[in-house]
Amino acid sequence: MIKLVNVKKEFKGVTVLQNVNCTFENGKTYAIIGSSGAGKSTLLRCINYLEKPTEGEVWHDDIEMMSHQNRLHEIREKCGMVFQNFNLFAHMRALDNVMFALKKVKKLGDDEAKKIATQRLSDVGLAHRLQNYPHQLSGGEKQRVAIARALAMEPKVMLFDEPTSALDPEMTQEVLKVMKGLNHTGMTIIIVTHEINFAKEVADEIIYMDKSEILEITDTKTFFTSPKSTRAKEFLANMI
Amino acid sequence: MNINYGPILPFMEYLLKGTYVTLQIAAMAAIGGSTLGLFFGLSSRRRDPIGFLVRAVVDFFRGTPLVFQLMFFHLGLPQITGWVPTIMTSAGIVFSLNSACYLSEILRAGIESIDKGQSEAAIALGVKKMDITFSIIIPQAIRNVLPAIMNEFITLVKETSVVSMIGAADLMRRQSIISGTTFRYFEPLLVVGAVYYILNKVLSSLGKVIERKLRYD
Ligand SMILES: Nc1ncnc2c1ncn2[C@@H]1O[C@H](COP(=O)(O)OP(=O)(O)OP(=O)(O)O)[C@@H](O)[C@H]1O
Ligand SMILES: [Mg+2]
Prior knowledge:
The structure holds two protein chains of two kinds. Chain A is of the alpha/beta class. Chain A folds into two domains: 2-78 and 157-239, Rossmann fold, CATH 3.40.50.300; 89-154, no CATH class. In chain A, 37% of the residues lie in helices and 26% in strands. Chain A has nine helices and ten strands. The model of chain A has no long low-confidence stretch (mean pLDDT 95). Chain B is mostly helical. Chain B has one domain (7-216): Orthogonal Bundle (MetI-like fold), CATH 1.10.3720.10. Chain B is 78% helix and 0% strand. Chain B has eight helices and no strands. The longest helix of chain B is centred in the first third of the chain and has 32 residues, at 12-43. Chain A binds chain B through residues 48, 50, 73-74, 76-77, 79-81, 83, 85-93, 100-101, 104-105, 133, 135-136, 146, 149-150, 153, 159, and chain B through 115, 117-118, 120-128, 131, 135-136, 139-140, 143, 216-217.
């Protein structure tokens, strides 16, 4: 379980996140939606401490991150993250991208790391791309390598920050398909997305953000049928 | 035309042996300079005493001529410290520090050219900072600035010629000794020029080979 308590984040005195209180239960899928600049990415990045909150607590089960900064590596290892711009290691082939953390973090030997990486890449439909460098892959393929790279670590949590925003519609579908395959397989999944229909389809709960705050946390059905806040209503109206 | 290799022929071996001295200094500087340069490049933005010291050293070495640095270190400082280094020690230290300062700037540009998304992805995977620096950032940074690094090495080989100012028997120094004895300038100078030229040709071909090796496509 992940729990954020009174999280606040400032960048050089400008508040971009405040009064953030939310709980992510094991095995559930959450979609964070809201307009641009609302603070969605910042919230997501606070979860694995890519951004350190200015105030507040971030709990991973019974560990509070601020007071356990020596355990950051361990917690991050358990939280896979996928970025909008893929962020593949440009000088490594697809296979090496996936093997890297297995070797450096999990300290696996070459053979075992290779076995796992090959398997993970096959899982996302890239068995034929093992030896390609990132610049030789399409956007959708890059993002699938990135997903395989995160999954290879066997995370308990997956964080997705607009994983399809940089992709054209066709590639978007291939990536969403992979993500659907992960839904309700035991991992906690938190997705920041502009793909409203996708959120509707996979998420158990919707977290709606606006102007650096969470305005609503509701189960998906309720959110789409009867959102509480006027802002959420407007947001949904603009989407359709 | 008045070209006659006869008088300098007996000195040819002596002259060419200066290549060793030149190469020795260049090699010391390349190895010391790369190592130190990497350290400088990685720490020059730190906001602590180390960062401050590195920035000060880089600033000093970039702000003064090499000849001055060499003479100051070899002839000036001993007067204060009482420690008289050998010519090769002075040359090794000054050339290393000097090229470290230029290399560090080149490497820093290379490091800054790497999108920080890659580091973030590695952090998110739980990778330690050391591994990120040495397995992700540095290999790509070096590759991106390799032509500039090779340029710096070529400049270095040429600049070793100033060691004759503190009495090292490098190519230039030997040429001037031979010319002083035989009163022939053109011939030994031509040989010296050819040696420098060949050394740098070899170096730049080596650079091209490394560049090809480091390419990932
Ligand atoms: N490193 C940073 N330094 C300064 N300001 C930042 C930084 N990161 C984010 N911000 C600011 O914080 C605010 C929230 O940013 P964030 O990226 O979390 O929004 P978002 O909801 O993810 O938006 P989008 O949908 O456009 O991705 C924005 O105003 C942004 O400019
Ligand atoms: Mg964002």
